Amino acid sequence: MNATTTTTTPAAPQQHRTPRSRSQGWEIAARVWAAPLGKVAVLLITALVLIACFADLLVPRDPVEQVLREVNQPPSWLGGEGGHLLGTDPLGRDVLSRILVGLRLSLLIGFFTSTATAAIGLTLGLLAGYYERFLGGALMRLADIQFAVPFAAVGIALAAFMGPGVVKLMLVLAFWGWANYARTIVSSVQQTKRMDFVTAARTSGASPLRVMLRHIAPNILGPVIILWSTGVGTLVLVESSLSLLGLGVQPPGFSLGSMLADSQQTLRLAWWAAVFPGVAITLVVIAFSLLGDTLRDAFNPALRANGDHDPELT
Amino acid sequence: MALYLLRRFALIAFVAVGVATLLFALARLSGDPATLMSPADASPEVIEATRERLGLDRPLLVQYVSTLAASFTLDFGQSFMFDVPSAQLVFERLGPSLWIVLPALGITLLLALAIGTAAALRPTRLSGRSLMVVTFIFDGIPYFWLALVLVLVLSINLNLLPATGNAGFASLVIPWIVLSLYGLATLSRLVRGQLLDAFTDGHVITARSKGVSPARVLLAHALPTALPPVLAWLGVQFSLMFSALLILEPLLDYRGLGGLLVESVTNRDFPVVQASVFSLAVLITVMNILMDASVRLIDPRLRAKAAR
C-alpha cells in the first residue's frame, strides 16, 4: 500500500511520493535530470566531487610547496611569472593547486556534517512527532530557543572555549542543525501517524520503533533530502566563515575557507589568492542549492505546476 | 489581543531563561570556568582565587539560580577587558550594529518585493525565469567574500570608501551592500511564490473579472495576500543578518556587537560573551514578535479572528 493514495489532510504541505521503492527513487532522479537547472546542478556536483577525489593527479604543482622566488605572483595571464594559472599566495604556493586540494576538505566537511545533522534531525523529528505531547513539546521549545540565538554566536563561543579544530567544528555544526529538520518534518510525522496504514501497523503489534522507521520515516524523507542538499552548501559556507575568524581548519590542513582567511590580510598584495577560493566556494554553494531546489520540484510536482502559472492569469 | 500579547511576552521570558540556561551549561561543559577566565599561565593559587572571586566554589544549583537572576537584571558582571559593566558595553556596541542591520533589512525587503513581483508577473517568460536564476547566483556568493571583493574594488582600487573601521556613513556602505544582498535571493523567491499563489486566489480572480485595473489588483488585492509570510521571514532574516555580522564586523574592523562578541570570546571575557549572546537572543525574539504582530495587523483573516 502506498501512502500517496491515503492522504486525507489536503493541507498536508509535503511530498506525497515516497522514495521507498527503487522505482520511485529513480523517478525523482529522472525528474531532477529532466529539469535544465537540475542537469546543471548534477553535472556541476559530479565535476566537483571528481575533482576533489582526483585532486592529487590534477594539481599542476605541489599545493604545499613554498617557492620563495615566486611569492605573490599574479595569474600567468596577467603577466605573472612561473606559469601559475591562478597566481601564487604570499607564501609562494600555487593557488590553483591549493583550490583543487582544498575543495576536498570543504566538501568532506559539507557532506559529513550535513549527513550527521540530517540523521540527528530526522531522529529527533520522528520522536517529537511520534511522542508529540511531552517529548515533542519539549523539543520544539528547545528549537524555539535555538532559533533565537544566531548560530555564528554559538559556533564562535564554542570553538573558542573548546579550541579550534575541524572535528569539533563539525560536531558543533551537526548538533546545532537538528532544529531546522525537526521543525520541518514534525507536522508531517504527526499527520502520517494518524493515517490508516500506520494505525493498522500499530494495531497489528508493530513496536513504536518499527512504526517510526518502517512506516513513517519513508514518508518524510522528501524534505530531509531537500534540506540535506542545501545543507551541504550552507555548511561549506559556515565552515569558511568560521575559518575566516581562525576558528575552523587549522594549518597545515587547508580548506577553501581557510585559504580565504590566510589571504585576507594580504588583499593588497595578492587579491587572486583570496578571490579565486571564493569563486570555488560560490560554485559549491550554487550547485547544492540548485540541486535542493530541483529536488523540491521533483518531490512535489504539484508545487511546480503551481509555480508555472497559467499565463492568462498574470 | 491582550491574551496574544501576554503569550508573546511569555515567549520572551521563556527564551531568556532558556538562553541563560544554555549559556550556563556551555560555560560549565566547556571546561573549568575558573581556569578559562584566568590568564593562560596562571598558577593554581591564582585560579583558586578567581574561583572564589566569581563565586564558582558554591554549589552548582546556587550558581545557576544566581546567574539566572542576574541575567534578568542585566547584571552580567564587569568586563575583564574594559572593566565596565558588560551590559553597558553591549548597549554601546549595539547601536552601530543596528545601523547596519536595520537599513539593510529595509533595502532587502524593497529589492525583494521588486524582483519577486517582476518575476511573478512573467513566470513563464525568459525575463522572469532569468531573474530567478540570477537570485541563485547571488545566493551562492559568500557574503564575507563579497565584502573582501568590495573592499578590494571600492576601497583599495578606486579609493572611494574607507576599507575598515567606523568612519560614519562611508564605512556603512559596504556592510549595507553585503547584508542586503545576503538574504535577497530567498526573500525574492518567497515573494514570487506567494504572489503566484495569490493570483489564483478567489478574491484576486474576482477583482480581475470585475475589471479592476491590473496595477490595482496587484497592489490592493494580491500583495496584501502575499505579504504575511514575507514579513514573517524578515524576522528570520534579522537573525541571519546578525549571524553574518559576527563574521563581517571583525573582517571590516567595525566596532559593533559582532566585533565585541568575537573580541570577548578570544579574550575569554566571559561576562561580555554572556551579556552579548543573551541580549542578541532577546533582541531577535522581540523582532520576531514584532513581525508576527505586524502580520496580524496586515492579514485580514487573522485580524477578524483576533476581533472575535
Automatic annotation (TrEMBL), chain B:
SUPFAM superfamilies cross-referenced by the UniProt entry: MetI-like
Pfam families: BPD_transp_1, BPD_transp_1_N
Subcellular location: Cell membrane
Glycoprotein found in the keyword field: no
Statement: the UniProt record of this protein carries the keyword Transmembrane helix: yes
Domain of life (superkingdom): Bacteria
Record membrane topology: Multi-pass membrane protein
Principal location: membrane
Record keywords, A-Z: Cell membrane, Membrane, Transmembrane, Transmembrane helix, Transport
Location of the ABC transmembrane type-1 domain: 94-291
Transmembrane parts of this sequence: 98-121, 133-156, 168-187, 230-252, 272-291
Similarity annotation: Belongs to the binding-protein-dependent transport system permease family.
Protein name in the entry: ABC transporter permease
Species assigned in the record: Salinactinospora qingdaonensis
Phylogenetic classification of the source organism: Bacteria, Bacillati, Actinomycetota, Actinomycetes, Streptosporangiales
